[in-house]
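I'll show a sample.
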Amino acid sequence: MYWLEVSVITDGEGAEAIAEALRPFAYNDGVVLEQLGDMNDLDPEALDPAVTVKIYLPEDEDTPAARRRIEEVLYHYGRLYPLPPPTFRKLQEEDWANAWKAHYHPFRVGQRLWIQPSWEESPVSADPEVDGLRADDLVITLDPGMAFGTGLHPTTQMCLQALEQIVTPGMRVLDVGTGSGILAIAAAKLGAADLLGVDTDHLSVQAAAENVAKNGGTAVTTIRQGTLADVSERGWDVVVVNILAPVIITLLAEYDLLAYVAPHGRLILSGIIDQQAEEVETAVSAANGRIQQQLQIRDWVSYVISHF
């Protein structure tokens, strides 16, 4: 069996729109965004402006009609935004499963969070000035699989930074759209005592549960398949939502997202392109929320929200 890799090159501004356009064709809605450079460097020049958006289709879905439909969708986007034609490439199953791992190595987020791919050894350092694993680091061992949440994307990194600042031992944390489970695992490592991660995708739920187990968090962490509407528990000390701005706005306006947060708790919102920030801020205000902190990495914005 082979897998068809469909890739198209765009830039940071167009990548999210192209990803959403291709998602309906992708196996289990899995979309990969690749950008060369150092994600940890805040310098705007640290990343290549080109972003490659990739999806994968199993062999039995690789038909002339499917390829033609993908080309048509991208052609229409290309009328609004310059795009090259897509590239189609066949990968054997083992190559498909491991292709992205070549670009995923251990790295630090914030002061003490160390993201460790499960298949790599940690670089150890006793010198705080050297970028290696330190004695007081909190190590998150991760194998994202096809789930979103490697820790490389700015939206995830800002959530991790906010969690590091906010979470204290004994807190209750809700992770909406948990993906690989990285944010729930980080909260557990920071001392949270009761965690729930929910995601609509069954592959993400499976990956998150496996990653929680790898990190010894099963006693305090529950992973479920579902949406925010399926969560009956309220009064969470921290609720973190790393999805997309339109979904966040809907959750605030129609699903009473802020009501899940305890009176003195915090809501972390991420997945927001800076052009969408004003709409999110308006939705937060309409839901009687107050912006306590804004984080930004390049053109991505995250917020820490409290009740008024």
